[in-house]
Amino acid sequence: MALDLQHVAAELAARGLRLTRQRRAVLEALADTPSSLSPLQLYEAARERCPELGLTTVYRTLEVLDEIGALRRVHGPDHCEGLMPVSAAHAHTVVCSACGRVAEFTACDVRRISAAAARETGYRITDHFLQLTGLCDRCAARRSAKRRP
Ligand SMILES: [Zn+2]
Ligand SMILES: [Zn+2]
Question: Domains in the chain and their CATH numbers?
Answer without folding.
Answer: 5-147 (1.10.10.10)
